[in-house]
């Protein structure tokens, strides 16, 4: 009976749970799904990547591979490298996505990740410059969803951060006589990660009720969503709110407080995994 009711009246079905301050999957309104992260070679088969990570948020599974290439800096920012993010939501990860060029949701997710990189200053682009006006690193950050069940933004931001922390770049020098670049693959250095931005997403139900880490079904039934990005110091990097129900100042503050707590949990998780894979 409840399966029929859920299919015919999904919103009413959800409301009955929300009245009791819980959700159909057994979680409380402010509870995240089980979160796991694997970093580097142990996590995936992207052997060509300079850094990689796989993040699972409940059933949502995202992989991020970072590929570093050398290029000339742009004329207007001669002392900076580039970071180029791209989020893919292939048809394989969910029936909601079509094959072909990136859809609206994938484009919005890519733009969100680009904004997170810019606003949080996760990496100073000056750190990617090798020789002023001559040579710089370009980091291509490809984030691919393997299994979609909502909250792609949190999973993507987490996978990006974990993958960047895994990147080792070879040392590069420019030969003064020939002007050519010389790459030393034996000497590698980790990226300087200046900030650890973490995204925390909420779905808004019936214009008033906030639930954290929504599933795909919850996103579909929600009257709006909001994603808060915070850094190590609890500072706000960005608030992403694509339309939908407005939020009162008090509700927004509530989201920010929850996001700061979540930041600590995610940072702890990454640190633990990195510690476990470092050579003893």
From TrEMBL:
UniProt KW rRNA processing keyword: yes
Predominant location: cytoplasm
Pfam families in the cross-refs: RNase_PH, RNase_PH_C
Highest rank taxon of the organism: Eukaryota
Family named by the database record: Belongs to the RNase PH family.
A Gene Ontology biological process term: rRNA catabolic process
Species annotation: Pygoscelis adeliae (Adelie penguin)
Lineage, opening ranks: Eukaryota, Metazoa, Chordata, Craniata, Vertebrata
This protein's record includes keyword rRNA processing: yes
Domain Exoribonuclease phosphorolytic: 32-170, 197-260
Any GO molecular function: mRNA 3'-UTR AU-rich region binding
Protein name (database record): Exosome complex component RRP43
InterPro entries xref list: ExoRNase_PH_dom1 (IPR001247), ExoRNase_PH_dom2 (IPR015847), ExoRNase_PH_dom2_sf (IPR036345), Exosome_comp_Rrp42_subfam (IPR050590), PNPase/RNase_PH_dom_sf (IPR027408), Ribosomal_Su5_D2-typ_SF (IPR020568), Rrp43 (IPR033196)
């Amino acid at each position: 009976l409840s399966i029929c009711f859920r299919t015919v009246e999904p919103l009413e079905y959800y409301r009955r749970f929300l009245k009791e301050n819980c959700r159909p999957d057994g979680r409380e309104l402010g509870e995240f799904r089980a979160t796991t992260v694997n970093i580097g070679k142990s996590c995936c088969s992207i052997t060509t990547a300079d850094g990689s990570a796989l993040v699972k948020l409940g059933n949502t599974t995202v992989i991020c591979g970072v590929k570093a290439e050398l290029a000339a800096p742009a004329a207007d920012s001669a002392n900076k490298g580039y970071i180029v993010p791209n989020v893919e939501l292939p048809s394989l990860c969910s029936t909601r996505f079509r094959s072909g060029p990136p859809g609206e949701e994938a484009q919005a997710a890519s733009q969100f990740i680009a904004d997170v990189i810019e606003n949080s200053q996760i990496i100073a682009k000056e750190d990617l410059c090798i020789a002023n006006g001559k040579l710089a690193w370009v980091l291509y950050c490809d984030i691919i969803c393997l299994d979609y069940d909502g909250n792609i933004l949190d999973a993507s931001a987490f996978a990006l951060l974990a993958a960047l922390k895994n990147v080792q770049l070879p040392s590069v020098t420019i030969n003064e006589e020939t002007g050519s670049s010389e790459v030393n693959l034996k000497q590698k250095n980790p990226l300087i990660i200046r900030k650890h931005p973490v995204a925390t997403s909420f779905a808004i139900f019936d214009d008033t009720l906030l639930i954290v880490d929504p599933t795909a079904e919850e996103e579909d039934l929600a009257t709006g969503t909001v994603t808060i990005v915070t850094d190590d110091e609890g500072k706000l990097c960005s608030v992403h709110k694509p339309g939908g129900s407005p939020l009162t100042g008090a509700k927004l503050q509530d989201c920010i407080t929850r996001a700061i707590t979540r930041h600590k949990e995610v940072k702890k998780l990454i640190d633990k995994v990195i510690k476990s894979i470092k050579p003893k």
